[in-house]
Structures are given as C-alpha cells and as structure tokens.
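Can anyone check this?
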Amino acid sequence: MDELLFMMAKEYCGNNIGAISFFCEALGTDLDKAVDGFGRMSQNGITGEKLYILWNDCCDRDTKRTIYIMLHDNIESIHKHINHENGRGIPYTVNEPEPYKKEEKGEWWIITFGYGHEHEGKCVKIKGTYEEARAKMVDKYGIRFAFQYPEEKWEKDWNDPNRPYWMEDIIDTIS
C-alpha cells in the first residue's frame, strides 16, 4: 500500500511540496473521494503546482472543499481558477461551485434494512449528517437497519453488476 501511495503522490504531485502536503491531507480527510478526485485532475492535466494552486489559492486550503471541487466542478472552471496570469489562482467565492454550500448542511445517505426486518432488501434515502440520518432512520423505522452508505458510493455500487443481493428498491426518501 505504501508503495502505491508513493507512486500516486509522484504522479499527481511531482516534486511540488505544497501539492504533496495537500495530497497527504486529502487522503486523511476522505481517502476514496480524494483518490477519485486526484485521478480526475491528473486526467485533465492538473498536477503538481496546479494542484497546489487549486488547494492553496483557489480554496484557501479548505481540503474538504477542494476534494469536492476536484470531483464536481467542471474542468474548464477549475482551469480558469488555476491559470490566472499573475501566477496565483483565483479564489472560489463562497457560493462556488453552487451545490457545495448545500452539501455542507448534510449529504444524502442510503440506509438498508437488516435481515428479518419487514422491509428486508429495501432501503431508505435520507438527507443530513451521518448522525442526523441515523437519528431520522431510528425515529421512523426503529433500530433494525443494516448499513449506511454515502449516496455516491451507493450509486457507484448500484451500477456494479456483481452488487450484493440486498441492493434493492428505495422505499422512502426523508429530507
């Protein structure tokens, strides 16, 4: 694993110490999302110094926000923010990209029902923080539920033809 991370850091960050710092912090913040975001940036020529400018100048070292932008903002917009003529990036405004602020208030979660529950094999989609989503689930359905997934992971797994048998229908949405 260490060798893989070293190879990824070398590919994504080159010799830029700032980019390496961001890389390490991002992996510690959300490993799966960070790896996906770095891959997307690398595929679009945003590595090394440009990666550091995105994190440092454009996002004011807000690692969670930078990961969100790497995954969700369009590449043209990211390039515009990074490639400022004075060698510094243009900061994202408070509301850029638009959905970011909405996600800060919570995200969508998929919670599955456990074995033996009347809704076994079904799931519920709930908006909130991790803890809020769990509390809403308990309030409405009791404590017999199985697993809780971020919606992005659920959608990724849902499209996998080898998905587990219990990935069935969403029976309720709670915001």
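Reply from J.R.: I decoded it. The first helix runs from residue 2 to 13.
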